[in-house]
Amino acid sequence: MSRDPEARAPQGPAVRAEARGPFNTRCKTCREHIYKGKQFNAHKGTVQNEVYLGLPIFCVIKCTRCLAEITFKSDPKNTDYPVEHGATRNFQAEKLLEEEEKRLQKEREEEELNNPMKVLENLQELKAQPVPGQRGF
Ligand SMILES: [Zn+2]
After folding, report:
1. Per the domain annotation, does 3 fall within a domain?
2. pTM (2 d.p.)
3. How far apart are the CA of 25 and the centre of ligand 1, in A?
4. CB neighbour class for 59 (10 Å; exposed up to 12, middle 13-18, buried from 19)
5. What is the per-residue pLDDT for 6?
6. Which range marks the domain in which residue 108 is found?
7. d(CA 70, ligand 1 centre) in Å
8. Beta-sheet strand order (sheet of 15-20)
9. Per-residue pLDDT tens digits for 15-64
């Protein structure tokens, strides 16, 4: 009973498992921070042709905020966990993002100082949340 043609899938059988955020990262969808050591319910499994010493080689978690799937790939050779998709790893990128946000925030504040009408516009922008998948009006 070891061979089951039905079991063939792009990825090996996934098992439910607990996973911890292997590093500080950030969801690409909602930009939620995912801190190192945070616990998740995850699916772990192997990717065909990429099994390394029988260790789980991928780990799928869901963002706690928007439920977007985030896939880590374990790399036991380098004891590393590159993000497969769904998130950005926080190193330099995190710092750059924060600086960019601060810069935009400052720009916006300065703009509002110079142009009181802009405050109203910005408020309206906040209210008019774009509907995903819908462009324009
Ligand atoms: Zn998210």
Report:
1. no
2. 0.50
3. 11
4. buried
5. 47
6. 100-127
7. 9
8. 15-20, 39-45, 58-62, 69-73, 83-85
9. 888 888 877 888 999 999 888 888 888 888 876 666 656 666 788 889 98
